[in-house]
């Protein structure tokens, strides 16, 4: 965990064309990569077959690890968590730090089977996803 940042592969999002360090790659498609925000916008036709880019997995592992680690090298992730908890701009999506952090937590929550889960916002995001799924089914029934 304390050797983070060694793999610096940068992806370009297929949808928004922005360069991102963390993203999602579909192994069934040639050169189909998404930033976390675009991935969270809606399902890819092959959704479920894709795998998170190693950088996303490292971020999630780092978050999980930082929650319990006293070392200074893990303080950056702890500061991001604390920032997001107290940020007043996160509700209107004006804060880029919060937007990326919540997108990471959302990606995690879509696949999380843990109960309870140590990742911040996971339970709330899972509940929101369930409510959205119920609404979607009602609208299309």
TrEMBL record:
Catalyzed reaction equations: L-lysyl-[protein] + acetyl-CoA = N(6)-acetyl-L-lysyl-[protein] + CoA + H(+)
Zn finger limits (TAZ-type): 49-125
Pfam families referenced in this protein's UniProt entry, alphabetically: zf-TAZ, ZZ
Keyword Thylakoid assigned: no
Subcellular location: Nucleus
Any GO BP annotation: positive regulation of transcription by RNA polymerase II
Principal location: nucleus
Start and end residues of each ZZ-type domain: 8-63
PANTHER family registered for this protein in UniProt: CBP/P300-RELATED, HISTONE ACETYLTRANSFERASE
Record protein name field: histone acetyltransferase
Species classification: Eukaryota, Metazoa, Chordata, Craniata, Vertebrata
């Amino acid at each position: 965990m304390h050797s983070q940042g060694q793999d610096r592969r940068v992806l370009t999002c297929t949808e928004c064309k922005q360069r991102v360090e963390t993203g999602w790659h579909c192994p069934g498609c040639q050169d189909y990569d998404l930033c976390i925000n675009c991935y969270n916008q809606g399902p890819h036709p092959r959704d479920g077959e894709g795998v998170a880019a190693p950088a996303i997995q490292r971020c999630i592992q780092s978050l999980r690890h930082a929650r319990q680690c006293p070392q200074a090298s893990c303080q950056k992730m702890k500061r991001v968590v604390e920032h997001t908890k107290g940020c007043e701009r996160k509700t209107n999506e004006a804060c880029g730090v919060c937007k990326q952090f919540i997108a990471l937590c959302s990606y995690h929550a879509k696949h999380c089977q843990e109960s309870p889960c140590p990742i911040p916002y996971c339970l709330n995001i899972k509940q929101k996803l369930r409510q959205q799924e119920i609404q979607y089914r009602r609208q299309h029934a």
